[in-house]
Specification:
Layout: H1 6-26, H2 32-40, H3 55-66, E1 77-82, H4 85-92, H5 100-105, E2 108-115, H6 122-125, H7 139-163, E3 167-171, H8 176-184, E4 189-198, H9 214-217
Antiparallel strand pairs: 1-2, 2-4, 3-4
């Protein structure tokens, strides 16, 4: 994809600036209830109802997630929505025993992965100039960039899911090596973490755990 230039570029930039101003005119912040829903009072869930997550909701979830910022618009995250019995059984091979029922009982378990070869798509994602030389032949730099930005996208994914009325249950108790062998063998994809999505059965919740106060972990410089 070639980058726009001249008058076309000027018009696109003007429209982008106008769109942001219009958005801020419509809404300049979320209300308390919305913030509570996505973060402040939100919970990680471990048990699920049998209400399915429809394809349209999953597609909308991705589209919202994709709007989050990544460095140079690299967008390295890849998502595998595991919901078949066969897929869950393959995933269960990698899980710690305590996490098996959490995954098997969830409508969907998402593998949040990242593509180490994300940079090959930069001509499409960042058409202003060719940034591939920043990563080509620099495997460690590419891996660090993919992991960092893929993790960011995983965070956006959970916030977007909650904004759509879904519940989430992130999981890190599993073998990345087994997941990668089972789902990504022979590819440039690597798993980061898992995240169950669906509509929770709240009866499995326990009390909300503590969080640090501002003065304990924040400072100014």
């Amino acid at each position: 994809m070639s980058a726009p230039t001249g008058q076309e570029l000027a018009e696109l930039r003007a429209k982008a600036q106008s769109d942001v101003r219009a958005l801020r005119d419509r809404v300049d912040h979320l209300g308390k209830d919305a913030i509570d829903l996505i973060l402040r009072q939100a919970r990680s869930h471990y048990a699920w109802t049998d209400k399915p997550v429809e394809d349209e909701v999953i597609q909308q979830l991705y589209e919202i997630t994709a709007g989050g910022p990544t460095s140079m618009n690299t967008c390295p995250a890849r998502f595998v929505f595991v919901r078949s019995q066969e897929g869950k059984e393959r995933l269960a091979k990698a899980l710690k025993p305590a996490n098996v029922p959490k995954v098997m009982g969830a409508p969907v378990c998402t593998i949040i992965a990242h593509d180490l070869d994300f940079w090959t798509e930069l001509p499409f994602l960042f058409p202003h100039e060719d940034r591939r030389p920043h990563f080509e032949g620099k495997a460690e730099h590419a891996e660090t960039t993919a992991f960092r930005n893929g993790t960011l996208q995983g965070g956006y994914f959970m916030i977007a899911a909650r904004a759509l009325g879904l519940d989430v249950g992130p999981i890190s108790g599993f073998s990345n090596a087994i997941v990668d062998e089972e789902f990504f063998a022979g590819t440039s994809l690597r798993s980061n973490f898992l995240c169950n999505i669906g509509y929770a059965d709240e009866t499995a919740l326990f009390q909300k755990l503590p969080r640090f106060a501002f003065d304990q972990v924040c400072s100014f410089a």
